[in-house]
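Dear all,

This email documents one entry for the complex benchmark we are building for the journal club exercise. For each entry we list the sequence lines for every component of the assembly. Then comes the predicted three-dimensional structure of the complex as a token string, followed by one or two observations. Please use this as the template for your own entries, and keep the labels exactly as they appear.
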Amino acid sequence: MKKTSRRDFLKLAGATGAGLLACGAGNALANEGLQVNNEELGMLYDATKCVGCKACMSACKRVNHDYGSLSYEKAKFDEDGLWDAPSDLSGSTRTLIKLFKESEQRWSYVKYSCMHCQKPSCVSVCPVSAMTKEKVSGIVDYNKNTCIGCRYCQIACPYNIPKFQWEKAVPQIVKCDLCKSTNLREKGISACAEVCPAGAIKFGKRKDLLDEAHQRLKDAPDKYVQHVYGEHEGGGTNHLYLASMPFNKLGLPEIKPEAPAEFSEKIQHTIYKGFIAPVALYSTLCFIAVKNMKKHESHDDDHKKGDK
Amino acid sequence: MGHSEEYQKLEGKIFTKSFFILLSVVLLGFYFVGVRYVKGIGAVSNMSDGYPWGIWITYDVATGTAIACGGYAVAILVYIRNRMQYHPMIRSAILTSMFGYGLAGFSVMVDLGRPWNAYNFFIPSKWQANSAMFEVALCVMAYSTVLILEFLPAILTSIEQSKWDRMNAIRNWLHPRFAPDKKTMEDKLEMVRLGALWLKPRLNKVLIFFIVLGITLPTMHQSSLGSLLLIASTKLHPLWHTGFLPLLFLLNCIFIGYSIAILESIISSYSFKRPFEIEELSGLASLIPFVTVIWLSVVIGDLAHRNQIAAALKGDFYSGWFMTEFVLVAGGSLILFVKKCRRSARWLFISASMIVLGGALYRFNVYLIGFNPGQGWKYFPSFAEIMITVGIVALEILGYKVFVALFPVLPNMDLHGAHKKKGHAKKHKGEQSKPLPQSEAAAH
């Protein structure tokens, strides 16, 4: 009788193991699901045109101040808080201009804000659907009324975009939503793109932005690194970049064309497809355990009789 | 099933010196929990936007639940592999699992920024099945409930047998004006007892289905704890980022579970001055190397497959942590291959500690040490952050100490000897071809 149960156990262990291993093997398969939608809204930031005036930062905070519960950040030397001086994206700042300077001749500005991915990791990992991607516009939006504050979106985002309000007793996640509820609704354009005096931020549909970007690369091949950052990175993003310096120097990470969310979802889906594996596991285990239990009880009775 | 006599309460006082020391640690931890709710997470912790998960998630949730897998591992052994001789160990294993998971849930509530929104887990329109976190959350909540159900028989037994000394003492201590009438109180307590008497046989009948659920759920969420980091492909060091994370986490929690069951038994035998249960422990110990060997081969095979062996041997920061984790688990398992060591409490303690440490370090490596969000980010837990974790661990030990005194949890020493002989008798029948171990042969 012992042998039977052991065989059962081994079978079961084998089946579970094989299932998990199969999913591991599944990783090697090619990217199947992701469809790029070029009709979605996005922005093209051209670092060679940016003059570093930070009008976009100021406009973003002015427009989204109340809606995004943003606040002004003091610099150390500025006791009275005369200037808003954030040093990085934070729980109060959705967009930021930074200067990267290699030498007097080689430098570049760079603007940070949400990349609005085609296949966003933050949406994939949010356990309660507080992060969502709008079907038509493609805007990756955040709803603080469902968010539980687990910060998994921060772990998952390869660009480190979602920021948490660490200093607040009632915190929330802060990230760019393309002015969805403010400037975009009122004027049809994001605040940063609207106020840029140098034309460094172009707002529009992804396909138009891509055409424009490739045109610029063709027109001035010496000026640019021949790459549109965001065209293929992590499955593609709606926020695109052009620059004269290598993108990783500007703090934009090198990311493979496969969306990280595709990789993790594929494994999760293989294990939990139709919830069959857990149910099968449960019923097999039940079968074995009940059988063992009955055997044990009859065994116990034998012993009791024997003792008497 | 009349398993109740298998277990006994621990005789002795509850309010000892160590009780008050632990209590003060718990209170200090809870003071900082209070600060966290008033002033925000940033006020007590060193977590940042680069390291949004600190030791609360890494230790209390990811590692703490693995350490709480004793109940899971022993349940597989007893109910699925049909090794009833380990049944006496199961109740204390389930008790520690119950505290481990309950307090992991508690520290999640401390860690969550907006815990009042957690009800969204129960609203189907908000469900997000793509998220490993969703799976972990639901499974852990369900498993905690199952653990309470699994432990309920112990509570019901002690209600049945209770003479209500403590309740009567409290009644006598209260001012007569506040104290309830003696007759009414006795009637009500009798009703509770009858309720327990009614519930117990019914619970026992369906308990096996909950026990099996208690094996299925950890299988699911322990592997999903590994899946959580699958998406951090750019941030987690390639030594640890692999599609096999779920499988590695599952195996990891099983060998940690057996090792922690051994440690628990040795420590409680030592501190409660009871004899060591060497027979059971060496049996458990002989299982561990099988699991660790599979785990170690998956780790090596996967590294070789992804051409990361060189990175593992490079000798830098990451490879150092990887080697430490690997050597601890491998070394602990090597000790357990020696039969003499399996029969010595000291060596069992050393090897089980090594395996638990190595297994826990693996989880730290995945969640924290191997996690690099980019340039400029650093994380080391703050004092208050550590104290919250230490306070939670202290509460766990405190609860264990109180519960083993209040309820029949530890194996009954008188019956235990008889039970062991039964086990041996079974072995004789089942495995006649195998030569008897020396000590057993000597015993007969």
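Observations: Chain A has a mean pLDDT of 85. Chain A touches chain B through 77 residues (CB under 8 Å).
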